[in-house]
Design a protein that fits this description.
The complex is a heterodimer of chains A (723) and B (100).
Chain A: E1 2-4, H1 5-35, H2 46-57, H3 59-85, E2 93-95, H4 96-122, H5 128-194, H6 210-226, H7 232-242, H8 250-253, E3 254-255, E4 258-259, H9 261-269, H10 277-292, H11 296-305, E5 307-315, E6 324-329, H12 331-344, H13 354-369, E7 373-377, E8 382-388, E9 394-401, E10 411-414, E11 428-429, E12 433-439, H14 441-452, E13 462-463, H15 468-493, H16 498-501, H17 522-528, E14 536-543, E15 556-560, H18 563-576, H19 594-603, H20 605-609, H21 619-628, E16 654-660, E17 664-665, E18 671-672, H22 680-686, H23 692-697, H24 699-702, E19 705-711
Antiparallel strand pairs in A: 1-2, 3-4, 5-6, 6-7, 7-10, 8-9, 8-13, 9-12, 10-11, 12-14, 14-15, 16-19, 17-18
Helix pairs in contact in A: 1-3, 3-5, 3-6, 4-5, 7-9, 10-12, 10-13, 12-13
Chain B: H1 9-20, H2 23-27, H3 41-97
Helix pairs in contact in B: 1-3
The chains are: A alpha+beta (723), B mainly alpha (100).
Chain lengths: 723, 100
């Protein structure tokens, strides 16, 4: 029996790499099948539903595969450990026969020495002194050979023990694996033969409690992977969280107002690969629930724990004789922020807690984007203040790292890139703060104006998670202090406009937050657009320090819209995409839609909502101009005429116009033919002006009318058509 | 209530590709042979698992391929019924126009 330790370990190690990949692919396929939805692919009907059911039933087989791979993986790992612990007979090899030969040889040598010793004892021709010396020599030889025999025997014993133990090891794994895999193959073959899709077609797999076994196996794998990163308490919390279904659930992190700090602090330390997307989504829901509960204390703590101490780094400064610890952002924060943003898109605007949740989404996204600084502090301390407008449709938040209340303050440094701690420039002392205003544009502007005027802040404002006494004393001064640095960034984003929107205070308005007129019309312009009223906006501004408010770290605009709002916008953009210049453009007519609308607003807010400012007007600015334009044909000078309208010279030579789709009776009872220009009934029922947005958002109106290309035969530029 | 029927060849093919995409890599796995380097009885047991693993992966590949094929079959069956129904209606309309 020869054990090539080096090659054996290499082969088993390589196999385990492959098995780990197989298990990961298994999990990916399980996720794919679990989430499969024919409707997402535009396929529906009973036939496709049956196939979907059939595919989901396949998951049991994949789980069984995972169990089998896991069993082999563990047996291999144990085998590797056992082989590694074996002694060598030659470098990297344990050869039992070779050891036996060595023992036999040593025994021979020993016997030879014993014979020599024995013969010396009876040889009287040798002097007693010499005899004593030679007997001692041969005794040493005997001892040495005896020692060798023991050494080689120990190696043989080790090999024999390994042989016996590993046999049992693989017999256990083999039995499980053979059994499970055979059931998998039989079940799959049965399904192929019968075309079955029901669970009953899974045959003997049903006899196993496959879901439970799978959860246990996955949990064990996850715990093993997480163990090196966690403290004892964190590991215990993690094991407890996985016990139920093998996943960290929303309730494991936050339930009934209680935030499980121990568990979250552990999760924040784990590498990305240890936490799957389903768990990230559960963490995002937990964060969302904190906002629904107005539990800002829990939010604060969650944010604090999302910054990890670098055990290898300390920060030194000439001003501070005691080095500060260095904290950096956990990768989990970015993933949670992304999931929160995605989930927020699904919340209907106006639903209970919508604006608080929007504020939460905005804040965590602002944090996640600020990956380029690390904190040099002894402890990351977050101070959160959230104020909700009395109208319940705007929220203002400040999230300060290391407030004045904190000893020693905070400083942070830029990172050259996310993976290295090379600082660029000097460390900047200050209190990095994130400001966030969320709501629709109208109320964002309104609230900013209120907050600017100290006397207008009244108890009707809700202070989330902070008692009113604190708000009335320190809170107000914090808000006033916060509004000033926010003014510059808001101006540069083009959403100030308050000088025009709210009017001056002396004239009875609420007073302007910002008097910079460079973008004065932007938001007031934006407020007119009906499309924007269904969308939530989040404006995040992070200043590097209060003394330099114009220095922005993240001048981002987040746009939030529910699926139904997007659907309504889809309907309108699909009409717009058929409208040629001047509103549409050749570059956008085929592809312009809701996604582009949101992207434009997020990436070029000013250029989108205010096309007259020279900041790269885009397709969305053209779209918004079109939605604002009148949908109905200008009033005919022949008031009351119900005859088909003549084409008047003051109308364009040709263009898109609104006409009746078919025979229609208008609000006055007049009957119009299909193709006749629409002008009067809309004007009467909706006033003189109805915008394209109002028209196309109103299904009752748009049902009877359509846009068609009209040729104005009366226009002087057009040839006269003979009667 | 039954779902409205919606089908098209491209979507069915896309769906089939989605479920078949991981198969090539997944089914390609094979175990190592260790009996030649580790001459103990357990190695034979280990190497013996290889057959069952390969069989399980192979039948899995066939199973998913049959499911992907079912998607194509479903689309073709639905499209055939649609065409056949349309032809009947056209024929019926033509007959009534001609007074048959």
């Amino acid at each position: 029996m020869k054990i090539d330790k080096t090659n054996g370990i290499m082969a088993l190690g390589a196999e385990n790499e492959g098995l780990a990949k197989q298990m990961s692919q298994c999990d990916d396929q399980i996720q794919t099948l679990q989430n499969i939805n024919m409707g997402d692919f535009g396929l529906s009907g009973e036939a496709y539903r049956a196939i979907e059911m059939r595919l989901k039933a396949r998951i049991s087989i994949l789980k069984a595969h995972n169990l089998a791979f896991d069993a082999i993986f563990r047996a291999n790992a144990e085998n590797i450990n056992k082989i590694y612990a074996l002694p060598d007979s030659k470098p990297g090899v344990l050869d039992r026969e070779w050891c036996q030969e060595k023992i036999d040889e040593a025994r021979g040598n020993m016997h030879y020495a014993m014979d020599k010793q024995d013969s010396l004892r009876h040889n009287l021709s040798v002097t007693s002194g010499t005899r004593f010396m030679l007997v001692g020599f041969w005794q040493k030889r005997i001892d040495s050979e005896y020692e060798l025999i023991n050494v080689y025997q120990a190696k043989i014993d080790a090999a024999n023990t390994y042989d016996a133990e590993s046999k049992a090891l693989y017999d256990d794994a083999g039995c499980t694996v053979q059994d499970i895999l055979a059931r998998c193959s039989d079940a799959a073959q049965n399904c192929i033969n019968t075309g079955g899709y029901d669970k009953s077609d899974m045959g003997l797999i049903n006899a196993l409690d496959i879901d439970r076994l799978y959860i246990d196996a996955r949990s064990r794998q996850k715990i093993d992977a997480a163990r090196p990163y966690l403290t004892e308490d964190e590991l215990a919390a993690y094991i407890l969280a996985l016990a139920n279904d093998g996943l960290v659930d929303t309730e494991d992190i936050y339930e009934s107002g209680i935030f499980n700090e121990t568990l979250y602090s552990g999760l924040a330390k784990l590498p990305d690969s240890c936490i799957n997307d389903a768990e990230i989504n559960n963490l995002a829901k937990a964060y969302d629930n904190m906002w629904i509960d107005n539990n800002t204390e829990a939010v604060e703590r969650m944010v604090e724990l999302s910054y990890l101490e670098d055990p290898n780094l300390l920060s030194y400064s000439t001003k501070n004789p005691y080095p500060a610890k260095v904290f950096y952002q956990s990768p989990i924060l970015d993933r949670i922020a992304e999931a929160v943003a995605t989930n927020t898109q699904k919340i209907e605007k106006g639903s209970v807690g919508y604006y608080d949740r929007l504020a939460g989404a905005d804040l965590i996204n602002a944090l996640a984007r600020d990956e380029h600084f690390v904190f040099d502090v002894n402890e990351v301390k977050v101070d959160l203040l959230a104020v909700r407008a009395p109208t319940n449709d705007a929220t203002f938040c400040t999230l300060a790292f290391g407030s004045e209340m904190m000893q020693g303050g905070a400083s942070y440094r830029y990172l050259k890139d996310a993976s290295t701690l090379v600082s660029v420039g000097q460390n900047i002392a200050g209190n990095p703060t994130i400001y966030s205003l969320t709501g629709d544009l109208n109320t964002i502007c309104d609230m900013a104006a209120d907050l600017k005027n100290k006397e207008s802040i009244s108890p009707e404002y809700t202070i989330l998670g902070v008692d009113y006494k604190f708000f009335a004393t320190e809170g107000i001064s914090q808000i006033i202090g916060s509004i000033h640095p926010i003014a510059g960034p808001l101006a540069s984003l083009g959403v100030d406009c308050l000088s025009e929107y709210v009017g001056s205070k002396e004239e009875g308005g609420k007073g302007a937050v910002i008097t910079d007129g460079s973008y004065g019309k932007v938001a007031s312009n934006a407020l007119k657009y009906g499309n924007l009223s269904e969308f939530g906006f989040g404006l995040n501004i992070t200043t590097d320090c209060k003394s330099d408010p114009s220095a922005l770290l993240s001048p981002d605009v987040n746009v939030y819209a529910s699926d139904s709002a997007k659907q309504r916008l889809d309907d309108i953009t699909s009409v717009f995409s058929q409208v040629p210049l001047p509103y549409g453009s050749p570059t956008c007519t085929d592809t312009y839609g809701t996604d582009q609308f949101i992207t434009d607003l997020e990436q070029n807010f000013v250029g989108s909502v205010y096309p007259y400012v020279d900041v790269n007007p885009n397709d969305t600015s053209r779209f918004l101009s079109w939605t604002e334009a009148s949908a109905s044909t200008p009033l005919d000078p022949v008031e009351g005429s119900n005859m088909p309208l003549p084409k008047y010279p003051d109308r364009p030579p040709e263009g898109w116009e609104l006409v009746y789709k078919g025979e229609t009776t208008d609000a006055d009872g007049a009957v119009h033919q299909g193709g006749e220009l629409v002008y009067k009934d809309i004007s009467v029922s909706k006033g003189n002006s109805i915008s394209n947005h109002e028209f196309f958002a109103d299904k009752d109106l748009s049902r009877n009318y359509e846009y068609v290309w009209q040729y104005n035969e009366k226009h002087p530029d057009n040839p006269v058509v003979a009667p | 209530m039954l779902d409205a029927i919606a089908t098209d060849a491209t979507s069915a093919a896309k769906m089939a590709t989605t479920i078949k995409a991981p198969l090539a890599d997944y089914a390609d796995f094979s175990m190592r042979t260790i009996a030649s380097s580790i001459e103990v009885s357990c190695s034979a047991t280990h190497d013996g698992l290889s057959t069952e693993v390969s069989r399980a992966l192979s039948t899995w590949e066939c199973l998913i391929a049959s499911d992907a094929s079912a998607l194509k079959d479903a689309h073709e069956a639905l499209a055939a019924v649609d065409t056949s129904t349309a032809n009947s209606i056209y024929a019926s309309a033509a007959n009534s126009f001609m007074g048959i």
